[in-house]
Every structure is written in C-alpha cells, then in structure tokens.
Amino acid sequence: MQKIILVFLFLVGYLFGSEQGLELFKSRGCASCHQPSVEAFGPSLKKIAKAYKGKREDLIRYLRGEAPPIVDPSRAGIMEAQLTMVKDLEEEQLLALVDFILSFEKTSEEQ
Ligand code: HEC
Questions:
Q1: Are the C-beta atoms of 20 and 103 separated by less than 8 Å?
Q2: CB crowding 96-106: b at 16 or more within 10 Å, else e
Q3: Contact 36, 45 (CB under 8 A)
Q4: Residue closest by Cα to atom 42 of ligand 1
Q5: Which atom of ligand 1 is closest in space to residue 32's alpha carbon?
Q6: Alpha carbon 60 to chain centroid, angstroms
C-alpha cells in the first residue's frame, strides 16, 4: 500500500512539474518564438531538446547566462535578450522549465 502511495505522489509531482514548466513557458512569452516541433522565429523545442540531450546542466547554465548557446549561435543575440525573462526564476521553477523543454526530445512529429 505504501508503495502505491509513493508511486502516486511521484506521478503527481512529475505531472505538476511539467505543468509548471508549460505555464512558465507560456507566461514568460517563450511560446511566441518557439513551437513544439516546427521552426518558428526561434528553433523548435524538439531541436533545442535534441541539442541539449544529456546536457541538462548546460541548458540550466545557458538560461542563467553562464554558458554559451549551442543551437543557433549566429542568432544568439535575439535569444540572449530574452534571458532577462527568466532571471528572477527560483531554482525549482528554472528546473521545471528546463525539464519541460527537454521533454520534447521524443516528440515524433516532423520538423
Ligand atoms: C523574440 C523571439 C524569442 C523569444 C521570445 C524566446 N526565444 Fe529562445 N530563441 C530564439 C532564437 C532566435 C533562438 C536561436 C538562437 C540561439 O540558439 O541562441 C533561440 C534559442 C533558444 C534556446 C537555445 C539556446 C542555444 O543553446 O543556442 C533556448 C534554450 C531557448 N531559446 C529558450 C527560450 C525560453 C525559455 C524563452 C522564454 C523565456 C525563449 N527562448 C524566448 C528566439 C526567442
């Protein structure tokens, strides 16, 4: 019984985490330039997630302005201006946002 409760709590935490990431992504205006799987003004989330596969720490550092861009450095200036939108995020919120972005690595739709 205890195991079931633990699994349940884990699932709720997981769902809540990704929900928070999605909310932040929308409320901070990221969605106006980034689409799930098609290129918009900014690269797709799928493309970003693939570039950062296995590099979660790098993505965290990038969003904090501590690591260089790796997806489309030729247009990095546009995105760097957006980083002010996430400067005030708490650690937990930033991680939710990062995990939300990384979850698109397995999006199956075509780019
Ligand atoms: C004005 C349009 C615009 C908005 C708004 C925007 N981005 Fe971007 N983003 C871009 C462009 C253009 C690039 C490609 C440049 C680059 O890769 O550095 C990019 C690249 C990125 C990258 C990849 C960086 C890399 O390593 O190269 C991440 C991660 C990212 N955006 C996350 C976000 C998040 C999170 C938000 C919301 C806070 C956001 N973007 C808002 C245009 C935008």
A1: no
A2: bbbbbbbbbbe
A3: yes
A4: 42
A5: 5
A6: 9
Helix (H) or strand (E) holding 57: helix 56-63
What is the rounded end-to-end Cα distance, in angstroms, of the chain?
44
- Name, of 14-28, 71-85, 95-109, the range with top average pLDDT: 71-85
Closest residue CA from atom 7 of ligand 1: 79
Q: Report all structural domains of the chain as residue ranges with CATH numbers, in order of start.
A: 2-106 (1.10.760.10)
Rounded Cα–Cα distance for residues 27 and 39 (Å): 20
Q: Provide the mean pLDDT of the chain.
A: 90
Residue 14, C-beta contacts closer than 8 angstroms, at least 6 positions apart: none
CA R_g for the chain? 15
Residue 81's identity, in one-letter code, is A
Which pLDDT does position 111 carry in this prediction? 43
For 78, the token pair is 């546009």
* Claim: this prediction has a pTM higher than 0.70: yes
Q: How far is the CA of 66 from the centre of ligand 1 (A)?
A: 15
